[in-house]
């Protein structure tokens, strides 16, 4: 339920996308994070302006604006042409506004959802990205950026403490400033029967001024996918085995299909200066399903494992079963103000469930049903790639 439009103005291209679907789905499943009485709060969408030759020397300018239900993001990127064998430079300016739910959100309904904790992040960053020439399997990006993070209440006022009176910035002021040097490397390999991917991010806070944050933060993501088939599909029953396949009396062979096993391991840690909003949040879609965002815990360190088996039924429909688990490795108490302990988060959690993915010309639909360790059930519904 949306609209998409592309407009060409000379050499520039403008993409406009307005979508009402997410609002409808969210109103059925998610608790309200703030008062959204404005008519514009019912609309989410994006605006993208691209110019491929800004000053006549193949300079590229990208301007994008994305608006969600409770967040927004503005990005301006300028790229100058350089030879392919040297690092590609991109000047980036970005401003984002979003509710800080992962650390300061309040778990409700047996940790299956997270409500607003009255803290929102306004982040401004300006800097330079350097994309190293990629090899066949490795790619690398280095960036250095100035960041200014300001904490806001739900009504837009600057705040320095949360609802319990604990500081929410590292500097003690209404904002934190830092210069961050970031290195990200990625390895990817794929064959007909498997794929592997490994990503490592390292961030270093540089003390340009005495009150600016000094820290070292790293995060890794390791993913592995294996095709387990062939599988044998039987009437009224599906069995999966490697040959030799056991005989099934009275069963009718329908088709050969493949099962895909996907495993993902995510971890990270931070040392040095730290504000609570920099903690690793565990729980939610993309982390441990069955829990609200950050409802498992938030700490200086984290470890999250996801295992999912996908079963294609046909070209348009596939099912999946999954197991998610995560822990803060006992580091929740090391976050300033200890927000996880004050909110009663367990620090570790397990979620299991199953789902369906349906691909149609109108869009991609996904439904996941998850149960957490407190026997609380959660339904996730997503719609992507909507047709105009």
UniProtKB/TrEMBL annotation:
<dbReference type="GO" id="GO:0009658">
    <property type="term" value="P:chloroplast organization"/>
</dbReference>
<dbReference type="GO" id="GO:0009707">
    <property type="term" value="C:chloroplast outer membrane"/>
</dbReference>
<dbReference type="InterPro" id="IPR000184">
    <property type="entry name" value="Bac_surfAg_D15"/>
</dbReference>
<keyword id="KW-0934">Plastid</keyword>
<dbReference type="Pfam" id="PF01103">
    <property type="entry name" value="Omp85"/>
</dbReference>
<keyword id="KW-1002">Plastid outer membrane</keyword>
<feature type="domain" description="Bacterial surface antigen (D15)">
    <location>
        <begin position="53"/>
        <end position="374"/>
    </location>
</feature>
<keyword id="KW-0472">Membrane</keyword>
<dbReference type="InterPro" id="IPR039910">
    <property type="entry name" value="D15-like"/>
</dbReference>
<protein>
    <submittedName>
        <fullName>Outer membrane OMP85 family protein isoform 2</fullName>
    </submittedName>
</protein>
<dbReference type="GO" id="GO:0009793">
    <property type="term" value="P:embryo development ending in seed dormancy"/>
</dbReference>
